TrEMBL record:
Stored SUPFAM superfamilies: Nucleotidylyl transferase
Family: Belongs to the class-I aminoacyl-tRNA synthetase family. GluQ subfamily.
Cofactors named for this entry: Zn(2+)
Domain Glutamyl/glutaminyl-tRNA synthetase class Ib catalytic: 10-118, 189-278
NCBIfam families for the chain: PRK05710.1-2 (NF004313), PRK05710.1-3 (NF004314), PRK05710.1-4 (NF004315), queuosine_YadB (TIGR03838)
Protein name: Glutamyl-Q tRNA(Asp) synthetase
Superkingdom field: Bacteria
InterPro entries cross-referenced by the UniProt entry: Glu-Q_tRNA(Asp)_Synthase, Glu/Gln-tRNA-synth, Glu/Gln-tRNA-synth_Ib_cat-dom, GluQ/Sye, Rossmann-like_a/b/a_fold
UniProt-recorded Gene Ontology molecular function terms: ATP binding; glutamate-tRNA ligase activity; zinc ion binding
Organism the protein comes from: Comamonas kerstersii
Record: residues binding Zn(2+): 104, 106, 130, 134
Motif 'HIGH' region: positions: 15-25
Entry EC number(s): 6.1.1.-
A single GO BP: glutamyl-tRNA aminoacylation
Length: 323
């Protein structure tokens, strides 16, 4: 597929409009903005409204207004995933033509039965890999969704890539263990066949899955660096493999610390996180900056000065690392 020619640095903040920004999402927004400014790069905003049933009417405009009040202004007009379905359809067709996507007829009940037979019980926050029920055909079931042939793709991976571990964006061992480097977390590894298996590309309701949409959009927008919350770290191997399968560049990844509630759970809209109060933008940004282990600035500091101070501190912290 055709991709944008990247400038030296292009980053993005990609919120889902399921509600206004909360304290945790402001941390991710500030971190991605700081990283772009520290690299003298371009910062984009992409509204990830790929799942309309979860989206809140008007939340996208609220998010953009919150960012603007905090001085976090994108360098190009925002884009909405809901307007980009043709790009996702093209990518899915490319994978189908290459034999890397197949139809799946599994219902939730089918999957649950297969998992039970494999002894895989549901655990909170633990994903269960696709059991491979339709990997060799639908067996008379109607097609409901499309899946990425992850198991097939990895099993046919050229083992020679293992020797490029010091220079490649990621590498895979014969055991299927995928290794990559996170700019904050350091060396990471995962066997995606055991974590997710053949994951969904297009859902039974016809909507495109997050994994496909985010990879296609990052490629088309020429994204070179992704800065996002640590809860998305486990998605990285799937996205690296999809990028490779689609012939897309691999961005560099940095996953930021999460803002947590008193019980240790991630602060999220799902758990009722309130909208971040940006009536005092500097106070809101100071709180976010402290979560990024940056020093707060004086209340007398102007917003522009505060942002510049944090840029300088972020540059000293992360530009000294391998980007």
């Amino acid at each position: 597929m055709t991709v944008s020619l990247p400038c030296p640095y292009r980053g993005r903040f990609a919120p889902s409009p399921t509600g206004p920004l909360h304290a945790g999402s402001l941390v991710a927004a500030l971190a991605s903005w700081l990283d772009a400014r520290a690299h003298h790069g371009t910062w984009l905003v992409r509204i990830e409204d790929i799942d309309p049933p979860r989206c809140m009417t008007g939340a996208d405009q609220v998010i953009l207004q919150q960012l603007s009040q905090c001085g976090l202004t994108p360098d190009e007009p925002p884009v909405w995933q809901s307007q980009r379905h043709a790009h996702y359809a093209d990518a899915l067709e490319q994978l189908r033509a290459a034999g890397l996507a197949y139809a799946c007829g599994c219902t939730r009940k089918d999957l649950e039965q297969a998992w039970q037979q494999l002894g895989l019980v549901h655990e909170r926050h633990v994903e269960r890999p696709y059991p491979g029920t339709c990997r060799d055909g639908l067996h008379g079931k109607p097609a409901r969704s499309w899946r990425f042939a992850l198991q097939k793709y990895i099993e046919n991976w050229p083992l020679a890539l293992d020797t490029q571990a010091q220079t490649a964006p990621f590498f895979i061992e014969p055991s299927h263990m995928l290794h990559w480097q996170d700019r904050r977390l350091g060396a990471e590894q995962q066997d995606p066949t055991q974590v997710a298996g053949d994951f969904v590309l297009q859902r039974a309701d016809g909507l495109y899955a997050y994994q496909l949409a985010v990879v296609v959009d990052d490629g088309l927008q020429g994204i070179t660096h992704v800065v996002r919350g640590e809860d998305l770290t486990d998605n990285t191997p799937r996205q690296l493999l999809l990028q490779h399968a689609l012939g897309l560049p691999h961005p560099r990844y940095l996953h930021t610390p999460l803002v947590r509630m008193p019980d240790g759970e991630k602060l999220s809209k799902q758990h009722g996180a309130p909208a971040v109060d940006v009536s005092d933008p500097l106070a809101a940004l100071n709180t976010a900056a402290q979560n990024l282990q940056l020093q707060p600035v004086s209340p007398a500091t102007t917003l522009a000065d505060a942002l510049q101070q944090w840029v300088n501190e972020w540059r000293a912290t992360y530009n000294s690392r391998r980007d």
